[in-house]
Amino acid sequence: MVNYVNSLLFLTIFLFGSSAVAADSFICTLRPVTKAGWIPERVAVQFKGNRETVSIRISEDSWPVPVVLKQRSSHSYLLDWTPSRALAAKATELSNDRYRAVLNLGNLKVSLQVLSESFPGVRSPRGAGTCTKVGGT
Predict the structure, then answer these.
(1) Contact indicator for 6, 60 with CB cutoff of 8 Å
(2) 42, 99, 31, 41: which is closest to 65 by C-alpha?
(3) What would the 3-class secondary structure string for 58-118 be?
(4) How many other CB atoms are found less than 10 A from the CB of residue 128?
(5) Secondary element (H or E) of residue 128
(6) How far apart are alpha carbons 47 and 7 in whole angstroms?
């Protein structure tokens, strides 16, 4: 029940805290697949326009983070971002490392990798999960 309420709160803040009018929005739930590092439990993804730009929220109280977006196929997108130092300072679990995700809208799956120099000799933190469409056209 608590997770459901947290998801609704996260969704509400994400949808109404954004200036986008008509956008595809997704909430993705992730689980770590490696033991090292931190992987966010939930990521909110909001496409803007005709999926030309995208923003991401890592937590309920974070601001949208701009993302470098590359379409890999008709259903697959590469999302690449680095949180600002200010955002990383506010969200203690977040780092200034580079995050890279592949979002497949065909099967609503996501994989995430943290590209970090904090874990020399160790596989970089990775996560995988599923997404739910929560808004848009």
Answers:
(1) yes
(2) 99
(3) CCCCCCCEECEEEECCCCEEEEEECCCHHHHHHCCCCCCCEEEEEEECCCCEEEEEEECCC
(4) 17
(5) strand 126-135
(6) 19
Q: Is the pTM of this model over 0.85?
A: no
Report the distance separating Cα 106 and Cα 92, nearest Å.
33
Tokens of 135: 């808004």
> How far is it, in rounded angstroms, from Cα 28 to Cα 129?
7
The residue whose two tokens read 């029940």 is 1
Taking a C-beta distance cutoff of 8 angstroms, is the pair 96, 119 a contact? Answer: no
| pLDDT per residue as tens digits for the range 78-105 | 999 887 665 555 555 555 688 899 999 9
What is the DSSP secondary structure assignment for residue 50, as one 8-state letter? T
Please give the Cα distance from 121 to 135 (Å, whole number): 41
Task: Identify the CA nearest to 123 among candidates 132, 110, 114, 133.
Answer: 114
